[in-house]
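Lab notebook, design round three. We kept the backbone fixed and only want residue identities now. Task for the bench partner: fill in a sequence for the structure below.
Input structure tokens:
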């Protein structure tokens, strides 16, 4: 089943990629309307929008999902329910397809909710307490975005149609359209896990690793970015764009800082996804939607590869995800390590790999834009932090001596998993240059002063050096100051956001509930109501029982009293 799905999805992906090239060269846009039901004057119409952007994004989603499904054939081979798993992944991809080609808010909601529902099923796939908690957190935080989208649908009723694509340019200054834009931004922030909705993204790591590779590269978390790319006109010079710029910058900074204090392999990569989502949101809120889309595609390639390599490492390490138990993996797993390092270098923005073309371009455009020092600092410092935790990740896992038990068999013999990883590695090397030639048809020259031009490279080098210094155990004083309990607790827990999202929201309602239970249900209402009534009834029944306990004297006395009452009643009648 895995192999058939892989071949079909790969074929469709290549076809869509070629079509997207044709569409962008000829500037084509196809808009289809399919009348599902027509009854008297009422008709239900499904609309689909095919342009270069939707076709290219679908192509990349299908490419990654095909390789992930092929990879799952080996990774999930011991799972008894592998067919159910593949069906869930295909449902997930279909929901994403519906979201990508919809110019209509109703069909977007169908794809959006499909993503939310199937992601919940995939996060709780392993059926343990941690998975259930993570699944509930993911589902509930995403429900906020679903409600915002429903509100946007309600406000779109003012225009007589839900095809937002008709109204964006003409109704730009309309108050109702501004409100729709606010709701869409809130929805996108929940799906793409921006502050204050960030806590669900690392929690979703409870899902199987192939799902993480799909979710964190091209499907669930990128849905919010894609929606905002479609609604980019509403962000132009608006207050929401400025607020989004600040929040996404803080998200990028927070996740980059937190990843340097983390020792869980998958969680570090999840935080790196959060950091890159923040970067996309920032450049999008500045108005450069094509750059955001470009980085979205290049990031999808190397992030999926990173997760697949992490999955192979975890598989070989006997399901251990702790960085401190790894080391020297490049000696035992050379091919997996090569793929892992290529993906890491692409993430850091190493020249001529996929990440370089989009990331370097974004940072140079930022240097050229008019913005304050704080936002500029967030952009560049967070980029330095990316290199910092990437180098720390490589240092702990690839170099030094093996720290795990000697029973682990480390090898590169799984050719099914390796072929999936090698396919993505090739794309991570050539994807950036290929996309830059296609998306930007005319070459752009960004002219900057000497120091600003080299600022990106300088920040990356400083970040790499810092990553080495933090990781090196011999520099004890740095580790000691960084491992201060309060600092590591605050920074390492994403600025207490998981606690705020869980305890912060639920603690006070639970306390109120406990007081209500204690004072009402088990207090006055209990004393005056059911318990008191029960006690009275027990007393009456005991008295009755005493009265009728075969005592002849009491029985005869009651009989005589009854006769007297009856005779008196007859006399007065």
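Proposed sequence:
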């Amino acid at each position: 089943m895995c192999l058939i799905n892989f071949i079909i999805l790969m074929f469709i992906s290549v076809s869509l990629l070629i079509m997207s090239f044709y569409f962008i060269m000829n500037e084509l846009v196809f808009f289809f309307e399919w009348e599902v039901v027509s009854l008297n004057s009422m008709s239900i119409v499904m609309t689909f929008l095919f342009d270069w952007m939707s076709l290219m994004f679908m192509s990349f989603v299908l490419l990654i999902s095909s390789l992930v499904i092929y990879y799952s054939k080996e990774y999930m081979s011991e799972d008894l329910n592998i067919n159910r798993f593949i069906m869930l992944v295909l449902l997930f991809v279909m929901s994403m397809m519906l979201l990508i080609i919809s110019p209509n808010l109703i069909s977007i909601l169908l794809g959006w909710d499909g993503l939310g529902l199937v992601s919940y099923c995939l996060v709780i796939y392993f059926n343990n307490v941690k998975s259930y908690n993570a699944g509930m957190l993911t589902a509930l935080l995403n429900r906020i975005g679903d409600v915002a989208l429903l509100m946007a649908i309600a406000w779109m009723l003012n225009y007589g149609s839900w095809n937002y694509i008709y109204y964006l340019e003409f109704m730009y200054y309309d108050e109702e359209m501004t409100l729709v834009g606010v709701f869409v931004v809130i929805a996108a922030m929940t799906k793409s896990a921006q502050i204050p909705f960030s806590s669900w993204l690392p929690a979703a790591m409870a899902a199987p690793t192939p799902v993480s590779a799909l979710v964190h590269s091209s499907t669930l978390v990128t849905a919010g970015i894609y929606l905002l790319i479609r609604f980019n006109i509403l962000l132009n010079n608006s207050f929401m764009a400025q607020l989004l710029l600040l929040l996404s910058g803080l998200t990028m900074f927070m996740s980059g800082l937190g990843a340097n204090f983390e020792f869980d392999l998958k969680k570090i990569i999840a935080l790196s996804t959060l950091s890159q989502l923040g970067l996309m949101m920032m450049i999008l809120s500045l108005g450069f939607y094509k750059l955001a889309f470009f980085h979205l595609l290049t990031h999808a390639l190397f992030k999926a590869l990173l997760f697949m390599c992490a999955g192979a490492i975890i598989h070989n390490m006997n399901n251990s995800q702790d960085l401190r138990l790894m080391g020297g993996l490049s000696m035992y797993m050379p091919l997996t390590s090569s793929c892992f390092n290529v993906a890491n270098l692409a993430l850091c923005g190493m020249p001529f790999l996929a990440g370089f073309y989009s990331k370097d371009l974004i940072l140079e455009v930022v240097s050229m834009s008019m913005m304050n020092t704080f936002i500029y600092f967030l952009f560049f410092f967070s980029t330095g932090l990316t290199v910092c935790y990437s180098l720390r990740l490589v240092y702990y896992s690839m170099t030094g001596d093996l720290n795990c038990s000697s029973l682990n068999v480390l090898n590169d013999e799984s050719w099914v998993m390796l072929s999936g990883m090698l396919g993505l590695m090739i794309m991570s090397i050539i994807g950036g240059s290929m996309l830059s030639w296609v998306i930007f048809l005319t070459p752009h020259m960004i002219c900057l002063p000497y120091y600003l031009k080299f600022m990106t490279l300088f920040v990356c080098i400083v970040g790499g050096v810092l990553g080495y210094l933090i990781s090196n155990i011999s520099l004890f004083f740095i580790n000691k100051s960084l491992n201060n309990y309060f600092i590591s607790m605050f920074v390492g827990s994403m600025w207490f956001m998981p606690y705020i999202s869980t305890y912060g929201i639920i603690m006070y309602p639970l306390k109120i509930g406990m007081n209500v239970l204690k004072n009402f249900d088990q207090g006055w209402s209990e004393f005056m109501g059911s318990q008191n009534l029960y006690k009275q009834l027990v007393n009456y029944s005991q008295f009755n029982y005493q009265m009728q306990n075969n005592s002849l004297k009491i029985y005869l006395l009651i009989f005589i009293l009854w006769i007297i009452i009856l005779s008196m009643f007859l006399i007065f009648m």
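Keep this in mind before ordering anything: The two ends are 95 Å apart (CA to CA).
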